[in-house]
Amino acid sequence: MWAAFLTELAQPDVTHVMVRAHDGYQACVPLEELMHTDVLLADHMNGKPLTPAHGAPLRLIAPQLYGYKSIKHLRRLELLPAPVASPVGRIVSHPRGRVNPEERSAVGASHFWRWVYRMQVGGHLRGARALSEQNRRIVRP
């Protein structure tokens, strides 16, 4: 149903969609990525309305894309004839952002970023382990 709705709205020259959130966050997503059958606009989760922590009032869910393309607190969709750069943090986001080929950033090759992120995993695991051990020592009434 989502694909039919989007197809009906899109003019022939539309190739991208700018997805904007209430907090000012935005991501430009290729229209073809939003046409996948598992892409959703969600307003409920597990039969209950979305909470603000999960992206209320509306959230874009595109499982094949990195999380920075699945916008929480959706405010607006803009249909565009060409991609528009949408910076995320300090690094410019990849124009597509697909998970499978590891399209994390428009800067540098995917294999470079794979090593950068893998180097960080050990530190994150040590930090999580330390927090877990601290929680075990807490005496709860």
Task: Describe this entry's structure for a reader.
The chain has helices spanning 2-9, 31-34, 110-137, and strands spanning 16-21, 26-30, 40-42, 44-45, 48-49, 59-61, 74-80, 87-88, 91-92. With 141 residues, the protein is an alpha+beta fold. The strands form four sheets. A three-stranded antiparallel sheet has the order 2-1-7. Strands 3-6 form a two-stranded antiparallel sheet. A two-stranded antiparallel ribbon has the order 4-5. It is globular and about 55 Å long. It starts with a helix and ends with a helix. The relative contact order is 0.15.
Secondary structure topology:
Elements: H1 2-9, E1 16-21, E2 26-30, H2 31-34, E3 40-42, E4 44-45, E5 48-49, E6 59-61, E7 74-80, E8 87-88, E9 91-92, H3 110-137
Q: In CATH terms, what is the fold-level topology? A: Sulfite Oxidase, Chain A, domain 2
Strand order of the largest sheet: 2-1-7
SSE ordering: HEEHEEEEEEEH
Class, according to the CATH hierarchy? Alpha Beta
Largest sheet: 3 strands, antiparallel
Could you give the count of β-strands?
Answer: 9
Any idea what the CATH architecture is?
Alpha-Beta Complex
First-residue to last-residue Cα separation = 50 Å
Domain Oxidoreductase molybdopterin-binding: 10-83
Pfam family, one: Oxidored_molyb
Protein name: Oxidoreductase molybdopterin-binding domain-containing protein
Keywords: Plasmid
